[in-house]
Each structure stands twice: as structure tokens, then as C-alpha cells.
Amino acid sequence: MKIELSEFFSNEGKTENLNVVSDLDSFESKLGSFLITEKAPFELHLENQEGKTLLINGETDVTVNTVCDRCLTDVPTSIHITIDESLDLNTMGVTEDEEEGPAWLDESELDLDKLVYDEILVNWPAKVLCREDCKGICSKCGKNLNLGTRSCDRSVPDPRMAAIQDIFNQFKEV
Q1: How far is CA 111 from CA 62, 63, 149, 158, in A?
Q2: How many CB atoms lie within 10 A of CB 104?
Q3: Is the pTM here over 0.85, yes or no?
């Protein structure tokens, strides 16, 4: 969703509240592609302060379908997004090679989807668990340990003892 901001650039003191919903349906990053299952509409507050600064404020919640870091099951994860941006109107239109504007601003259009994407990226949880006591998956057979006991051999030899185990296996009497 794109919002035209040219009126706010030229009208000192202009204020407007917009009830908007992002068109973003999925979140893609280096971690993978995640479906956005719920997104709440939010009130976006736009305000030109004294012809110098454009304030952009709003809050919303989105639910992203992620995977548990231990057992790889799907986990709906709620992410609270707080938008609190300010644009210096005095430097708008000034293009220097070193200074680029924000990615969510294209000349006089606010790209709401890019802004929400950036906020999801910043607020992404460091670790996602399906539950606090998640047991993960078996390192041998790959079974989800939360669903029951595993059927594979549970003995895990200590790799430091591998040389001694080889000696025992060579001199084993039948």
C-alpha cells in the first residue's frame, strides 16, 4: 500500500489519521519465507510539524507463521510493530551520493509494506520455541521428542573414547 505524502510536505501543520492495513502477505528473509496469517488494521498518524519535520506514528500487531528452533513444528508468532519515524523536510529533495533516504520512502510516496517489513525484521524474535520445555528432535532418527519416545539406539558414545572402543572391538573374543 502506498500513501501520497506531497500534501504533508507543502502544508505546514497538516495532520491526518489514516486507518490502514498492510498488503504484506509474507515475510521473506535469509531465514526463509514466512506466511503472515493475521494483520490488524492500525491508525497511522501523519503530522507536519512547523514545516520542518514530518512525523509518522502508528502501532499494530501481525502474526507470522514461523518454525520452532528446536523441533521444527509450525508456531504462530505475534510481533508487535511500533512505527515512530520522522522525516526532515528541509533535506527532502536534496540528493547526495552518501545520503540515501529511507527505503520505505519513494520521492513523495510512503510504501507502507516496506515500512512494516523493516519493522518486522527489527522485531524478529531471536529464538522461537513451540513451548518452554521443547525437547527438540532426535539427533539420530529425527523424531520429534515432544510427541513421544524415540525408537532408535539411545547410546551415544563419547567421541574422545573412540580409539579405546576400537581396541576393545579388535580384541573381542567370541
Answers
A1: 17, 20, 50, 55
A2: 20
A3: no
